[in-house]
Amino acid sequence: MAFSKIPVLDLSLARDERTKPAFLKDLQDAVLHVGFFYITNTGIEQNLFDQVCKEGIRFFDLPEAEKLAIEMKNANSFLGYSRLGNEITASQADWREQYDLSTPHPVPTAEAPRYHCLLAPNQWPSPNLLPEFRPLFERYLAQMSVLSTSFTSLLAESIGLSANAFDPFFDKSQQHKLKIVKYPDAGPGAGQGVGPHKDSMLTSYLLQATPHRGLQAQNLAGEWIDCPPLRGSLVVALGQGLEALTSGVCRATTHRVISPPAGQGARYSLPFFQGVSYDAKFEAMDVPESVRKLKGKGEGRDDVEFTFVKGRWNHLGEATLMNPVRSHPDVGERWFPDLLAQVKAA
Fold it and tell me: Which of 14, 70, 90, 176 is deepest in the core (most CB within 10 A)?
């Protein structure tokens, strides 16, 4: 049955052994049949949520020259600032500007696989203009890294696996990423804030920074279900990497953002993307047959091509690199013209 609302899961219930079984049952239902849900009582203080939202919004008030000094196409890591309307989703420009950053990593060695370009230092805004920005977001990334790792253990338990089942797919110093996104309420491209898509990797955690609606998830009937802001919550989306590793048991759900109505001001959000080892192979998890049967066939509408097709790639990193090349053709043209040509020929 196609879902008609977005589930809300209270994460505090997972920290109490008396209520954890019921939580895992609710999580299993959300994972098998929705793939998109809120978590509340996350363990991260509301004050930190408020601070990163405020500081993230301030980033877009920087002079244009300062933002372009850390533009994404300056490096081949796909980290940095992306101009308004510069990203492509579902073959159409997204009416948003954004800044991408990640947990800290050094520049990869010359001998590293090509997809290790994604592991690189951040391009930070000037500390003279935003002195609190870097320490604040490094703190937030660290706390979100811990949260996402512990939540993945709960996901594993909810589908009948051991709590550490996904550990082999993480690096010792695992990279995770974050976007700070502004969706203007007006302009020639207003309408598609970001087009229909599925997130990569394992899980993502969206912090909605303003009270604007616009985030929607698509059910298998092709209907778009609203996911309005809920203060203190994170919106969890299952990624394509998780779907690949569980042979479709954990389904990545298509979602999109509609631009705010004119006159309501810009919408802001901060999605955190849990990473997985780029060197990991396409190995399916041994999900119990009893859980597979609960999933059912799940036939229905799905408007987004699946990235992690087995047999096409040797490592998750190869598949992952193609996503930003497709989404940021200006970066692809400068640093990966051969991969961009493959995207255009597909």
Answer: 14
